[in-house]
């Protein structure tokens, strides 16, 4: 293969996460709404009938379908399906940083405003109930934080003889922060808490800059 062919193959390409085609990709919306003159964040409690994570607290969202225009579209579509509202009631949808997890998934979070929350009719097949928490509560309350350690464990037939150090190779261990927010007997944790923490950090950065 000559250099010109290599150049044609690589020029003008858009970078992506290596191996991302093998990742499950999801998009979620962190919903804001006005309640009693104050900004609230809306959460869902997943239906007990769901196969994955029944009863856990989450944001609206789901897997990106091949027919979806983009990940922003997915976040809005999933929100309309789960909360039973029209797309026209979701405004000011802005991206947060996307997340690559240790479990082979990529999460694309967004934040958006629900303009008429009184029209929400949760889909009972997916949503057990909804509740809201004042944004000010999270801004004044630090979450509990614990570490999760991920250790690499090669399979039994791993060719240790091919690497320097063999069975004594110093594999890097990874630690991940796991956040827990407590509100009126409810526990918000996992990916939902990580997205929430990221959102709050962005707001704090903006306020420190005087914005």
UniProtKB/TrEMBL annotation:
Q: Does the keyword Magnesium apply?
A: yes
This protein's record includes keyword Cytoplasm? no
Q: Entry's SUPFAM superfamilies?
A: Nudix
Looking up InterPro entries in the UniProt record yields: CoAse, NUDIX_hydrolase-like_dom_sf, NUDIX_hydrolase_dom
**Ranges of residues in domain Nudix hydrolase:** 23-156
Its needed co-factors are:
Mn(2+); Mg(2+)
Q: Which Pfam families match?
A: NUDIX
Protein name as it appears in the record: CoA pyrophosphatase
Keyword annotations for this protein, in alphabetical order, are:
Hydrolase, Magnesium, Manganese, Metal-binding
């Amino acid at each position: 293969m000559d250099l010109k062919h290599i150049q044609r193959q690589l020029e003008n390409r858009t970078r992506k996460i290596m191996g991302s085609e093998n990742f499950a990709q999801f998009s979620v919306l962190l919903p804001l709404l006005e309640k009693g003159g104050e900004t609230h964040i809306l959460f869902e409690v997943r239906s007990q009938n769901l196969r994955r994570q029944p009863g856990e607290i989450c944001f609206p969202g789901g897997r990106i379908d091949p027919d979806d225009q983009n990940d922003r579209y997915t976040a809005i579509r999933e929100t309309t399906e789960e909360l039973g509202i029209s797309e026209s009631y979701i405004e000011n949808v802005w991206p947060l940083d996307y997340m690559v997890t240790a479990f082979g998934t990529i999460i694309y979070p967004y934040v958006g405003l629900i303009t008429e929350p009184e029209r929400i009719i949760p889909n009972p097949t997916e949503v057990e109930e909804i509740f809201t928490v004042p944004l000010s509560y999270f801004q004044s309350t630090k979450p509990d934080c614990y570490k999760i350690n991920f250790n690499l464990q090669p399979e039994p037939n791993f060719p240790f003889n091919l690497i320097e150090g063999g069975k004594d190779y110093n594999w890097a261990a990874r630690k991940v922060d796991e956040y827990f927010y407590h509100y009126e007997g409810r526990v918000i944790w996992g990916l939902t808490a990580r997205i929430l923490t990221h959102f709050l950090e962005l707001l704090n950065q903006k306020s420190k800059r005087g914005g």
